[in-house]
Design goal:
The chain is α/β, with parallel strands linked by helices and about 180 residues long. The protein has 7 helices and 5 strands; from the N terminus they run H-H-H-E-H-E-H-E-E-H-E-H.
Length: about 180
């Protein structure tokens, strides 16, 4: 089994683990504005455009901004996880905007060259085994005037967590462990 398949089966079969991480961020984040609101406000797109979100998860970007979606936007939501797309479809279906859902790997997008005004890739790039291949695909499917909107964690994003709790013991199933407060 590949690392990608293992991650899909253990973490993204459904939304439970993603929801748990989002609850932690909501509880402890210093951002009072909300991540998905913040992202949406940075989408500088025409009232009529083609948007692809890769690694859409359960569709929360669109759900949290449903009242702000221009009628002229065509949004295609892609994820490698059927479970995530099922959840996205279930929560977005009743919201009045038409979305298309595609099970797809970011490294091999099934779209024509230059067909999107924007590609959105939030907090998913660290799961992509061959990021240069995904970047090449993003560039290929973007129009010459298109924009990639991507957000990911920095190396220091969780640094404060290590200072607020004691060191984790070694992980019992293998070679990973938590950071000590001094790392």
């Amino acid at each position: 089994m590949s690392d990608t398949q293992s991650i899909l089966q253990s973490h993204y079969q459904d939304t439970s683990r993603l929801d748990a991480r989002r609850r932690l961020h909501a509880k402890y984040s210093t951002n009072t504005h909300g991540f998905f609101t913040w992202v949406f406000e940075r989408l500088h797109l025409a009232p009529t455009c083609q948007v692809l979100e890769v690694g859409c998860g359960s569709g929360d970007l669109w759900l949290e901004n449903r009242h702000r979606l221009p009628a002229g936007w065509t949004a295609i939501l892609a994820d490698l996880s059927v479970g995530m797309l099922t959840a996205a479809h279930r929560q977005l279906r009743p919201n009045g905007h038409t979305f298309r859902f595609v099970v797809q790997d970011a490294q091999a997008l099934p779209f024509a060259d230059g067909c999107f005004d924007a590609v959105i890739a939030n907090h998913m790039l660290y799961h992509v085994p061959n990021r240069p291949a995904a970047y090449a695909e993003f560039c290929r499917v973007l129009k010459p005037s298109g924009t990639l909107y991507a957000a990911t964690n920095s190396r220091s994003a969780m640094r404060g967590v290590g200072r607020t709790r004691p060191a984790f013991p070694p992980y019992p199933r293998g070679g990973t462990r938590g950071l000590s407060p001094d790392e």
